[in-house]
Structure formats: structure tokens, C-alpha cells
From TrEMBL:
Species per Swiss-Prot/TrEMBL record: Calcidiscus leptoporus
Gene3D superfamilies reported for this sequence: 3.30.420.40
Protein name: Carbamoyltransferase domain-containing protein
InterPro entries per record: NodU/CmcH_Carbamoyltrnsfr
UniProt-listed CDD domains: ASKHA_NBD_NodU_CmcH-like_N
């Protein structure tokens, strides 16, 4: 996979140029079905990262550099190729909203956090601007996107978006939430439960073929939407209850229901198959509509960090800063002078 990290300059001031061999993928608009198995690599890869078609990707700013690249293109014209297809990953309606655009041949990708556009730290909400920048960066269009996958964090995304026209009409949410590049109405959509999304984010690139994945995110998906989707046999929502269990699977409490949310999860994987090994649920002690989604009042390791960050930084979502300071605890407690 090739990824580009764009620096402090706005994305619209950048241009991409690529020369590659033709991709032999068949262009299809139909969306694949989710399953309980994952595959490392793809049709163009071998081994962990594998071989790939010869590719030249360069990121140059407007001006003299772009003129040089354009001249190079004229001297070495690229062979014709089929239009690329893209999968769009979305984290929206939560903090740190982000769009990730990845070509199905694994050759081009870009990640656009919304905060890089709005200049608001941890900015959330809708993603039309981030999606627009991602498409522009890879010279793609919405018609090139064959699948959109959303991460479900505080609530189910797809049912929420079905209610948006009414909610926006009565002023609950801004009309920008209805922007076509936020909803992408002509693109097949799927959704991942939160802890499972954390697990799958590392599985495809794991350096070994079997093992365990431990997720301790503090607040994941609620058990109620999982049970409802399972009862309706909803194929668009991939969640834990659709995964097989290990023989030693345990969960606490043994029969969660209602307003219980994921606290800590353990998944086992072997030969491409993912199974549930352990799950601890925590009850919601306050409404998720609160400014902090009730996070700091839950019983989970992540929520403990949130409570501490509220005391230190007056910010419930500064947990990462607390984690960064934690390794200094022994040195500070020893009484020895130290320099931070």
C-alpha cells in the first residue's frame, strides 16, 4: 500500500501524478459481502506486502515542480488503463472525523482528517469536505467509489442518516449533513461495529498468521443495535454477534442487554478467520447524548483515563495525553529531579 501524508499545506495546493501498468481488476459496481474472514494482500500482492505493478507516484506543488513532472509525462506517456475503483472508509458523527480513500488495486491511498480542513482540533460531524479533498487528491470522482464503509461508534450510522432529512428540517442538525459527498447516496454502504473495526485495522498487516487482538477502547458499540441487526439479518452491518466464538469464549456479564456497551474485547485469528475470545460489557450510566457521550462515567480502562484527563486537563477526551505522561510516573514519584 502506498499512502501519502500531506503536510501543513492545504490539500488543494497539491497535485498527484502517477504512471502505472494497467490494472486487470474487473470493474464492478456491486458491493462485496462482509464475512468473518480476512485476506492479506489482494490480486496484485504476494507475501506480506508482495510485488506490484511498476508505479511512479509523486506529490509536487504547483509551480516549477509541476512543470517538470508534466514534461516528464510528455516524454514517457502512460499506457491506457481501466478506471480505478476505490473503497472509502469513514469515521463520522464522532470526534476526529476522517475519510480514507483506498484504490482496490492497493496502489493509491489518501487519508484526510477533517481537522486538517477546518483547523478545529478533533473536529467531528459530517465529512463532505474531507471526502471532496480525498477525491481531488487522487484525481477520482464519486462514480469511482464502489464501496463505503463506516465505523459505528456512538450509534448506528445508516439508520441515523435515514432520519437526517427530518432531523435537519427541524433544525436538529445542519443542512450540510445532507450534502451528497457526505451521504454518497449512489454508493453501497456497509458498517462496522467499533471494537471490531479496531481489530480489523491491524489484522491485515499482522506479521504473523495467528494470535490475539486486545481492544481496550473504553466505549464501543452498544449490544442493543447488534441484537436488532442480528434479528433482522441485516447484511449491511458487520458486528461481533456475527462472529464465531472460540471454545473458551467468555463475556461479562454473561447475558448483556439494553444499554450495555463494549468495554474490552479480545479476538483470536488464525488462517484468516476471526473469532470472539472474550468480551466485557459496561453499562451506560448516563445518556449518550451528553457532550462526552457518557464516556467518563463508564466502568472501563479507557474511561478511567478519561476521568483522569478531566481532572488534569479539564477535557474528557485528552486521554492520549494522560497515556503519554504515564511512563514518567515512576521517575516523578521517586523524588529525583527530571526534565520533561
Amino acid at each position: 500500500l502506498h499512502s501519502a501524508f500531506v503536510g501543513s499545506r492545504p490539500l488543494r495546493c497539491m497535485r498527484w501524478a502517477a504512471v502505472s501498468q494497467p490494472c486487470n481488476c474487473e470493474r464492478q459496481r456491486s458491493a462485496p459481502e462482509f464475512g468473518t474472514r480476512f485476506q492479506k494482500g489482494g490480486p496484485h500482492t504476494a507475501g506480506r506486502f508482495g510485488s506490484r505493478p511498476s508505479l511512479l507516484v509523486s506529490l509536487v506543488s504547483r509551480g516549477e515542480g509541476s512543470q517538470i513532472m508534466m514534461s516528464a509525462h510528455k516524454a514517457s506517456p502512460s499506457p491506457p488503463r481501466l478506471p480505478r475503483q476505490y473503497v472509502l472508509g469513514l469515521n463520522k458523527y464522532s470526534h476526529d472525523a476522517t475519510a480514507c480513500l483506498l484504490s482496490t488495486d492497493g496502489e493509491r491511498s489518501v487519508v484526510v482528517p477533517k481537522e486538517r480542513i477546518s483547523r478545529v482540533k478533533h473536529d467531528g460531524g459530517e465529512l463532505s469536505g474531507a471526502v471532496s479533498h480525498a477525491l481531488e487528491a487522487l484525481d477520482a470522482s464519486p462514480e469511482d467509489v464502489v464501496l463505503a464503509v463506516s465505523n459505528n461508534h456512538h450509534f448506528r450510522v445508516l439508520p441515523f442518516e435515514q432520519r437526517l432529512p427530518w432531523a435537519s428540517a427541524v433544525g436538529v442538525y445542519p443542512t450540510q449533513y445532507l450534502a451528497p459527498l457526505n451521504l454518497l447516496p449512489n454508493v453501497p454502504h456497509y458498517e462496522l461495529s467499533h471494537h471490531l473495526a479496531h481489530a480489523w485495522s491491524v489484522l491485515a498487516d499482522a506479521p504473523f498468521d495467528s494470535g490475539l487482538v486486545l481492544v481496550m477502547d473504553g466505549m464501543g458499540e452498544s449490544v442493543r443495535p447488534m441484537e436488532e441487526a442480528l434479528a433482522l439479518n441485516d447484511p449491511t452491518y458487520m458486528h461481533d454477534l456475527r462472529l464465531p466464538r472460540t471454545d473458551s469464549f467468555q463475556q461479562v456479564p454473561a447475558a448483556p442487554s439494553g444499554s450495555y456497551r463494549e468495554a474490552e474485547s479480545v479476538y483470536s485469528f488464525e488462517g484468516g478467520e476471526v473469532r470472539r475470545a472474550f468480551k466485557r460489557w459496561t453499562s451506560e450510566r448516563s445518556p449518550p447524548e451528553l457532550y462526552n457521550y457518557g464516556f467518563e462515567h463508564m466502568e472501563s480502562l479507557g474511561a478511567v483515563y478519561s476521568r483522569i484527563s478531566s481532572h488534569i486537563f479539564a477535557d474528557w477526551n485528552a486521554c492520549g495525553k494522560v497515556m503519554g505522561l504515564a511512563p514518567y510516573a515512576d521517575a516523578i514519584g521517586s523524588g529525583e529531579p527530571m526534565r520533561l
